[in-house]
């Protein structure tokens, strides 16, 4: 283990990069000879601090810690929005929500007045249909991988109807509103109710002698927080409340399922030729005395909602290390995977290949955008725009939807938990970053 505490990670990271650099070059002949399996592991509602390797003193995540230690791990990294449906859509397409149009979890018009939950589901399905139709026209990673002969399988969270809408060959989510399809349906059973369906698909792909892409996005540690009792009892004396103990137990439960997946691939002799990518869709900070989340986490513009470690591991092809300096994004995942496979980058992607040292060094700014949970259009549903640099992060509220809020500015290097607003003290930085946001949106 390279460090049990976050501050130690930063020290080790700076030492490591002083000697070996931030990324590894991938020889062309290696790309031609190897076609790795690809496994995306996507956590659901977990704060960037809530891992052993990120310095959490009580929470145990040994399997993700091991992945982080053996992979190239970015710790100053973000998703472009802090809600699951748009975040997941960005992971699989490599573009901002304003481009893929999945702005929130549910699409409802101001005139919609559902009578009850059943009526709301019916209206939601009708309103969401154009969003799905638009999404089906986009270029997703599973669709791109077909050119390399990949089979693909979806499990867990998936908001865009049937798995086939994302280009997957097979999957667990049927997406039929009449049968309760909304955000994963049958797919949400993976992890919580065992791993057999996923393991069976891996066996199938191996029998077909085809490389495979797996989307493992379980409903973990997401609510309901109903962990195995043994894990709950483990954390109960360590946590400040029963609610926090349950959340911590859910995080370890998720980690256990990751270990099962990695161990299964190892048993099948596939670990050395599997590219693992780890990311969380959005953050979560557990309320101490209630079952919900704090206002500065999920659905918020703060780092507790948007920041996540991002890990890339492919043994012998990506040099391990902790990168605590470079800004990274979930939007980078698609172009990075394509680069590793020697595939051409399509037009319109918003991220970079993080294995390209020059591109990583040239990056100055990441952007974020947050919309209403029940959205209509970009213009009508926009809540916040963000620009993230080193060291500053700006949060710009949309005046139409957040009339009582003002621009906020934080030094996220000195103040990673965003406690001191510097907007009044640094008007020139505020102006500069607002101009960057406007330029980004006009591209």
From TrEMBL:
Pfam families: Sulfatase (PF00884)
Residue ranges annotated for the Sulfatase N-terminal domain, each copy included: 36-343
Leader sequence segment: 1-18
Keyword annotations from UniProtKB, A to Z: Calcium, Hydrolase, Metal-binding, Signal
An example Gene Ontology molecular-function term: metal ion binding
Record keyword Hydrolase present: yes
Cofactor: Ca(2+)
Keyword Manganese annotated: no
Similarity comment: Belongs to the sulfatase family.
Name assigned to this protein: Arylsulfatase A
Organism: Neolewinella agarilytica
